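Look over this record as teaching material.
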Amino acid sequence: MNSWELFLALKGEADNIDSEYLTQVNEYDEKQSPLGSAQYIIQSVAKYNLEIFSEIKNRNCVIMSEEIDSNKLEDFTLRINQYMDDHIPDQPDFKEYIRIISTYLTFVARKPLHPPGMLFSDNQKIIEQDNNYYCPAKSKYILSDRSLCEYCIAKCLRYI
């Protein structure tokens, strides 16, 4: 499978997600939570996910089609499904929403899984420099069981 074929499959899946459900899942408090707090991170990720989902639905092509390693795609899908089953087992629609977005970010758009500019604790943030992304949390979480960091395009921040 190549990234064009994967994009078309993801776009088709995105079109099948109920718009009423999307309205519910993307209702988040507009008040800005304290930077770096758990609520701030949830809000930042929710907003990013909504933007990316909209990008998937509105995009009609990919700039460059590349072959995708089927073993990596399968492992990525297994990891995200297991993570979602462990953390929100009773929300299959949300699980599909996140899987579509994360797969698109990783294998089609080649963007980080978390929004660039999002602040973590200690005023560290995901940054973009010279068309590369750097994440301050990747070195900590990449060693976690079933971590998606292994697949995220962002590099460990300590390497700049």
